[in-house]
Amino acid sequence: MNAQHPSLRFLRSLPSLSPYLRLSIFFVSFLICGVFMILGLIVTNNRGLTPIFAIPVALAAWMFRPRQAALALGCILLMLIVINTAAVKSLIWPFPLTITFLCGIASSLIVAGAIGVLRYALNTAELTRHQSLLAEQQMLKAYNQEQHINELKDQFLLTINHELRTPLTALHGYLQLIEDQQQPGPSNQSRFINHALQSSEELIAMVNTILDAFDSDTTSLQPQYRELPLISIVQNTIDLFKPVQWQSYQIDLLIDENLKVKVDQQFFHQIIWNLLSNACKYSPAGTNITVGARPETALSGAESICIWIRDAGRGIAPDEIPNLFRKFVRLKRDQASTIRGMGLGLYISKNLVEAMGGQIWAESSGVAGEGSCFYFTLSNVTQPVTPITSTSYV
Questions:
Q1: Would you tell me which CATH number, out of the four given (3.40.50.970, 3.40.50.150, 3.30.565.10, 2.60.120.20), belongs to the domain 225-393?
Q2: Exposure string for 103-126, b = 16+ CB within 10 A, e = fewer
Q3: pTM of the predicted model, to two decimals?
């Protein structure tokens, strides 16, 4: 902020002085102006010095609140009436003196009004500036708190990475060894070990999901592009990550066999896995899940490919779609359901798609049975030369 002139600082400090001090300043100026007016009457017989009282009027309008300033103006008006009446020794004033008095009063009121408006504007500006400073301080405080929370989150994830991943992997390995050594045939021990193995696999998957989200937040994702047949990498992804529950669904592929795309294979596997996993979670058993792709040409002439995964599940409420790809977000309907999830799969998929220069979004009417459709785009596409055929993949 620029340094203010001393006289300006003095004027701005007047309204903040104590009431007695402000009253004293007003009366001193009032008396000085009264003395000058009386001396003018005695020495020059000039009765037209009424405008000199614009000085105490301006001070009153600047230092006092409107009601107090009005009382001060009343006192000035009463003193002028007394002085003029004493000067002409009659309650009936000469016409020139009356005109001068009325003009002086009018000019004083105009000055008082203008200064009052100016003081109100300055007070409003000062209040706005103060509120802005408070808001800025609150924003800075909130930002610091968010930074602190992010540091705690990062430290928590690092702790998981170093302290949990190794023992979980060892536990899973030992359970697999025990299961391999079990004799064939039903037994409670074999069943318990199988349940423990499944639980350890689920826990490892959850930890890996958290760490994937952490990596997409804290590192610069650098895709390693390879030109691959799209239908082949989709099928490989399904074969590589195919869980037991997928056997309850029929996965239809609407992808041209000659369509190729340059992608990071690991990124692409993770995206397809997350989207297909969600489709299975939120769709009734026995329904179809469709994975399709079509080449597209942008207005700029750039070639891209749009890949979609459509299910026949319960759908997503339109007002909840904008929050789908945020971190740790789960739909309201799922928060009290038995469907498990951490709200990170779509967030990770968004980061991976954007790292490869694409976009991801979802469409749904929210009507049960009509399901949802998730789309994402990728560039570096090679156009197909044959029409698209449908392939069922169970």
A1: 3.30.565.10
A2: ebbeebeebbeebbeebeeeeeee
A3: 0.50
